[in-house]
Amino acid sequence: MSHFAKVCNGVVVNVLVAEPEFFQTFVDSSPGEWIQTSYNTYGGQHPEGRPLRKNFAGIGFTYDRERDAFIPPKPEGDYILNEETCLWEEVIQEQ
Question: What is the number of alpha carbons within 13 Å of residue 49 lying toward its C-beta?
Fold first, then answer.
């Protein structure tokens, strides 16, 4: 089985498990598009060496088409996006 994220205006609004063939007959009249995501991908890594879109999509994640990546919501505080992993990293202020 595969995982797919429904993306509307760049934001994940739903995630489901289905075979790719499911979308040949699936009727979805709501706006947005379904984009495949990988449950085993995190920070651009996959245990079998085949990462897909940097991170497994979750509701509220952003899909960045240029990076072809799912990016989690930014945590509160001072964080920057790691371009390699598409994960947020806390900025540590030197004292």
Answer: 0
